[in-house]
Amino acid sequence: MSATAIRFDGVTLGYGRRPAVHHLNGEIAASSLTAVVGPNGAGKSTLLKGIVGTLRPLEGHIRLIGASNVPVAYLPQAAEIDRSFPLSVYDLVAMGLWSRSGLFGGVGRKDRTKIEEALAAVGLIGFERRPISTLSGGQMQRALFARLLLQDSPVILLDEPFTAIDARTTADLLDLVRRWHAESRTVVAVLHDLDMVKRAFPKTLLIAREPVAWGETQDVLSAENLLKARRMVEAYDPHAHECHRSAA
Amino acid sequence: MLNLILSPFAEFEFMQRALVGVVAIALGGGPIGVFLMLRRMSLTGDAMAHAILPGAAVGYLFAGLSLSAMTIGGLVAGVVVAVAAGLVSRFTTLKEDASLAAFYLLSLALGVTIVSLRGSNVDLLHVLFGTVLALDDNTLLLIAAISTITALALALLYRPLVLECVDPTFLRSVSRAGTPTHLIFLGLVVLNLVGGFHALGTLLAVGMMMLPAAASRFWTNDITVMMVISVVIGIASGLSGLLLSFHAELPAGPAIILAAGGIYTVSLLLGREGGLLWLAWPGKHLEA
């Protein structure tokens, strides 16, 4: 069977002492293409932050397996970028080379070719010198996908990559996701469009704070499971007690 | 005309020294100001300039108007406040501006009180508004050294500094350089404020950072060009301010900041990137 890329052992992630992801066990297989779905507030983004390592688990461990010096490539929800900063599209995309050039390394001719290829792959040729403030939402997302391409990471995490993106851009970017899958990279994407998940994502994790179902997409997205996920209580209990469930 | 510009500097050594001083301050302060502005920390610079005052005042209390005592005092106070405020905003929910706003008033009141304990009103004016026309060799060397350190440090930190402004989440996902970069940057701000403090005083030192930076934003959309323009505007302000003060017999420090303010106003009106004139008369729209 295929190797494991990301392993969760009794993982609880949250803010303060409030869990947003509660007691998650399981693994994401290497080279798999997984969708993470669930209602708002279900802990989907939190889960990605935990995998990237910007949020430490309150309990349990998240392990990235397969020794690699290249860090996980992560596309957060778009709002976190300062669009008013005077930076060109070219420079934004070139940041993807960070893991190789680091703080001080130069950008050589080979790297420039790579940057141009990435821009071409997302259809942004001619946009190189444009300030990022002039990009539309879809063009910005294309630029960020170009940056992901350059990061050349074996593990790619996408947080709602197609929200508020038009059909053509979505189709183009989804092709890149398929290409990554074909290149045996491990891709995990938070999504809301269940039709797209059924069409393009073989594996699905349905989560509503606690994992509801995880496995083959057609099994996970059953009417019964979706109803269960929808029943998740969104508000937290102000008088919640300490959780004593065992971590494993 | 040319004579009006050249002769003050040719004839008077104190004018030459003042010019060298403001050029050096512009070289360090210009790029720092641009980063402060782009990181939405313009007022942070102002608050930190005030935070330097009690430290410099304590130095003054012990050693009078001594360069080293006031520099060390100012640096210590500035670094303490900058690091404390930086850490507070990073690791608690309190925002940086909120944690610095309190220091602004507290430091100014404390500093003025300490200077008044020993000195005259003239000394107080020196501390608040600087002595750009009386820069000695050591002060010039200090300012030049600070500019050199700033240029080197910015060259090394450029990439994480830019990334931290544009996309801090991305920087955190690829590197741990974010927090150290931020702290070193705050240290550079303090250094430049202490350098500027000797020439322009605590109240006006930040003017040579923020006014050229704010003006340069109206001329370009490219951050490297912006830093160059900011330095050029700083130097032009220093030169014209000194001349203005010489010919019109105005106090030199405020004249320099007024000149910078004049350039800022012109940029605000005429600047090619979002100046008011271009907003009012943008010309007919282009073809799609």
Automatic annotation (TrEMBL), chain A:
Gene3D superfamilies: P-loop containing nucleotide triphosphate hydrolases. Signal peptide: none annotated. GO terms for molecular function: ATP binding. Residues 6-233 form the ABC transporter domain. NCBIfam families: AztA (NF040873). Belongs to the ABC transporter superfamily. This is ABC transporter ATP-binding protein. It comes from Microvirga terricola.
From TrEMBL, chain B:
The keyword Membrane applies. InterPro entries: ABC_BtuC-like, ABC_TroCD. It is a multi-pass membrane protein. It is found in: Cell membrane; Membrane. Keywords: Membrane, Transmembrane, Transmembrane helix, Transport. The chain crosses the membrane at residues 18-38, 45-63, 69-88, 100-119, 139-162, 183-211, 223-244, 256-281. Belongs to the ABC-3 integral membrane protein family. This is Metal ABC transporter permease. The lineage of its organism: Bacteria, Pseudomonadati, Pseudomonadota, Alphaproteobacteria, Hyphomicrobiales.
